[in-house]
Amino acid sequence: MAEVELENVSESPLEILYWMTELHHLNLVVTDATGTVVSRGHFGDRFAPTCEPSILRLGPGEKFAANVHFFATMPIYPPPPGTYSVTAVYEYEGLRAVSEPVQVTV
Question: Are the beta carbons of 25 and 91 closer than 8 angstroms?
Answer without folding.
Answer: yes
